[in-house]
Each structure stands twice: as C-alpha cells, then as structure tokens.
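Good day; I would like, with your permission, to put a structural problem before you. A protein sequence and the structure tokens that stand for its backbone fold form the material at issue. The record follows directly beneath this note:
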Amino acid sequence: MILGSRAYCREAAREYDFDVEFAPVEWEVSTRAKRRAAAVKRPKIPDAEVGDPIDWRAAADRVGSSPEDLRTCTLSLTWAAFESFDVGEWTTTLRHELIHVEQFQRYGTTDHGPAFEDRAEAVDASVRCPPFADPKYVLTCADCGAVVGRRYRECKLVRQHDQYRSSCCGASVACSESGAE
C-alpha cells in the first residue's frame, strides 16, 4: 500500500506540478481510522498561515527545534479506505493529501480554505472524502430525509439532535443507530 501510494504521489507530483519535496515526508498506515481516508500529520507552528510563506529557520528557532525536524510531516494512509476505494477514489485521496503537504511545506500549515479548494480543482482532487466505513449514528433531515451527518461515536449532536436544524430544509434532525460497531 505505501509503496504503490508513494509511487503514485511521485507521478502525480510531476503530472500536476506539485511543489513537494518527498525527503521530509514519512509514511504510515492506520488500521483504526474510520472517518478519514488519509491525513498529513505535522507539527503545529504558531502564527503560520496559508498564503504567508514560512521561514523554516526562524520558525525552528521560535519553537526550539531544527528546521529539518520541523519540516517533517507524516502521510498517514487508512487501510479501510484503501481497501474500499476504487483506484480513482484512492488516487484522488492521494492528490488531496499532496495539496496538504504542498501547503505545509510552503506555509508551515494547511487548511481546507479557498486556496485549497482552488488547488483541488486544478489537480482534480475532491475536498471531501467519501465515506468508507459505516457510521454508528446517521442524522437525517425530518422533512426531505437527506443525510445531514454521520457520526462514528456518541457526541453532543447525537445526544441533542432535537436541538439542531438541518442545513437543507431548516427542519428538525432525526438520529438513528445504524447498527455498525
């Protein structure tokens, strides 16, 4: 999984002109994640903002680290997503994560803001990950029946769903257990 994904990322970097240095990128596989197909784990750098290029040496001095250690990020791939996605969904996921790596290496942080959305469109990547695991709770609009949320654990939204309104119709939100464990 890692070898194939790493090879695809190198190919995508050339094809889509990603400005990514792969040496400081570490790779891992998660067998526990249920909500994310992949993630870029990175150090949090105070005052870093997308759009503001980072001076790695100055940032490392501020946080008491070496620039090399601070620039290292980990691309964590989720095994369940890899197994359930087709090749197109998986490669889209990898391009999504490459945007995060690219932003992190340039700005010291990353987000899903307008710059991310523009870049995602340019590299044919989605901004949101399709679900690949069954949620424990499904929240639906009481008027139109549209799914407005999926939760894998009990949370405030699940416990107090009757206090929320759907984003589609403004109607009440119903919650049901899907039976997934």
